[in-house]
Design a protein that fits this description.
There is one protein chain. By secondary structure, this protein is an alpha/beta fold. Helix content is 36%, strand content 15%. The chain is built from 11 helices and 13 strands. The strands form 3 sheets. Strands 7, 8, 9, 10, 11, 12 and 13 form a 7-stranded mixed β-sheet that branches. A 4-stranded parallel β-sheet has the order 4-3-5-6. Helix 10 (258-261) links the parallel strand 11 and strand 12 (265-267). It is globular, with a radius of gyration of 22 Å.
Amino acid sequence: MRRAGLLTIGLLSCWLMAAVQAATITDDRGVVVTLPEGANRVVAISTFGSDLMLALGLKPSAVTSFGPFSRPDFLGPELTEVPVIGSRAQVNMELLSEIAPDLILAIRRYTEKNASQFESIAPYMALDLVTLSDSLRGVQLSGDILGKSAEAKELNKQFEQQLTEFKQRAPGGVSAALLVTSSETPFIYHDHFISADLLGYLNAENVGGASATPEQAMPLGYRMGLEELLEQDPDVIFLFASNKERAFTLNPIWPYLSAVRNGRVYEVGHHWKEAAGPQARSLILQEMAHRLYPDHFTLPALPAHIQSRPYH
């Protein structure tokens, strides 16, 4: 009897050891990140981390701000009480230390320069979150290190099915431009940026076109003058969020654009800039589909201040 009890205890010990065995992945820097006891307190430096964790049924221990807002409220009320530790580009290291995380899940291009500081606090996982393939890979890698591999795989599978469905339903024959900045010359996104890439899955042409250096994630796009924009003359224009008046819309050429004349210029929310998360990318696809083809797709529900709307 005693021997059976010892055997049971031994098996239980083995099970517990397996349950907390180290999680190891290689992040997008090529650095091996290991969590000896799994991830229980995760800080999300970028909306991607918050988006993904909530989609996996988890909750971050701290988040970064979302544009001019303290938290990404398109994700719902679950983040209301979660501490904010600055922006994705300017993290408050003191607050981060106080959180005492066991994993820092971050966007690479804003945080890699401070990698040593992050690594002195907790294991630091940096992801490229520019392209759609980055998003799919980032979801899976993050799911792996969070102990949710199967669930992450399912999130990607569902989105890929959504892409296929929307592509089959989208009529096509429309062009679009994704513009950002408040200066006199707008910045237009290349095809490889996630939000622009989704246009292709809706059978729409991105007038920003392909990058001249497709092997590189940067630059995300380029400056396009209003004269050139008029030559391209997109059917639909998506204006990314700005807290200043867009000087290029005051250019005398602006009213001559077909999208302007036809009332097909739309302001979009901050989630279009941080599109890699599983919830953000799906919402953008749905919003974009409705604005391109309003008779074929419905507009998803979002808080009014970040839902896409006609620009006047």
